[in-house]
Q: What sequence folds into this?
């Protein structure tokens, strides 16, 4: 029996995916169907660039819809705000790290791959930093195997959602 691999995701992440799917199905899909119909009305389909461009766009939209439906279907929503924070780094938590050598602090939230965005401080649970800190506790020193070499960090705080952080 082949079981589907579950995909961890935050409540905000699943909401964003559902909104994106809704946009594709109810706005973009009908718009591209209209574009195809207009292009067909122009005549000879063999040399109709508008028709071929619209068909290509339709294929991309359908692929995105399929991927989103698969991701949503396999999603395992993890809401850390319902968990007791004892200072352990888990999926969905926001972590503050301090580089032992430079004293530079980094703050990030560990999220699913589909919702990762470094510019927003959201890193994938599969990233090297997340893999190094998940399961660890406040005050622990962790080594991140970065492309430039190992970097040591101290875990300064862990916050679950909007709950107050556990600090050192």
A:
């Amino acid at each position: 029996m082949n079981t589907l691999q579950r995909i961890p995701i935050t409540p905000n992440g699943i909401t964003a995916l559902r909104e994106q799917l809704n946009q594709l199905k109810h706005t973009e899909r009908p718009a591209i169907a209209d574009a195809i119909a207009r292009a067909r009305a122009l005549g000879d389909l063999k040399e109709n660039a508008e028709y071929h461009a619209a068909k290509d766009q339709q294929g991309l939209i359908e692929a995105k819809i399929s991927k989103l439906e698969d991701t949503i279907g396999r999603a395992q929503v993890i809401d850390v705000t319902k968990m007791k924070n004892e200072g352990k780094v888990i999926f969905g938590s926001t972590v503050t790290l301090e580089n032992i050598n430079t004293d530079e602090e980094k703050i990030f939230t560990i999220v699913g791959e589909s919702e990762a965005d470094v510019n927003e401080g959201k890193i994938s649970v599969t990233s090297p930093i997340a893999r190094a800190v998940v399961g660890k506790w406040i005050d622990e020193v962790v080594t991140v195997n970065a492309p430039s070499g190992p970097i040591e960090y101290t875990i300064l705080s862990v916050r679950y959602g909007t709950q107050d952080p556990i600090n050192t």
Notes: The radius of gyration is 22 Å. The chain has two domains: 7-77, 81-167. The mean pLDDT is 91. The beta strands are 7-9, 75-77, 93-99, 105-111, 122-124, 141-146, 149-160, 166-167.
